[in-house]
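Agenda item 2: flavin mononucleotide complex prediction
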Amino acid sequence: MTHRTLYLVTCGAPLASRIGDGVRAAREQGWDPYVIPTDAALPWLEGQDLDGVPVLTGNRKPSDPKRTPKADAVAVVPATFNTLNAWANGSANTYPLTVLCAALGSGIPVAAVPFAKHDLAGHPAWLASLAVLRYARVWIVDPHDGATASLDPVSSGTGNRTADNFRWNWVLDLLKPPEEDAGGGS
Ligand SMILES: Cc1cc2nc3c(=O)[nH]c(=O)nc-3n(C[C@H](O)[C@H](O)[C@H](O)COP(=O)(O)O)c2cc1C
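Presented output:
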């Protein structure tokens, strides 16, 4: 199986508690995952088994070598209100945001699982940011059911349950490359 590089960006919301599962699911589909947490995501990573994958926090020093191969795909799971709006706005003042902004410019497949409660999702910037990202061909994936055509806010008090019920295949199946060998040939 050809291995491809997947950057898994994760933000400070309950679904960050499932990154360990995401790493394993990605590996089963032939990805080499790299975890790229925001500072706010770090408490959710504590105690998770990340199967030894690299966790990249902060920018490298200018004198250090590059830490990762180029990404073949990027997923941001979960995408908080803060990060999703900053990303759509083109802010790249943290390492995870730089990765996300660069992914839009490079044309690789990108998926985001927005995770915001009703009050934050009611802010006008949220809908505008989602529209920008959809225009940029980002797959927007509902954390409740994997839908890509609609997105429901997370009801207060249900964040952990929504995280538990989340299935990584909702995201990974969207990022799969076309079959390398469809059985044809001459
Ligand atoms: C327990 C807890 C739950 C949170 N849940 C959410 C959430 O579901 N969605 C969200 O956008 N922010 C949530 N936040 C707030 C974010 O962590 C906060 O806005 C943070 O600044 C986001 O930073 P980031 O986008 O760099 O990860 C939560 C914070 C805590 C402490």
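Discussion summary: The chain has one domain: 4-60+68-175.
Owner for follow-up: CH.
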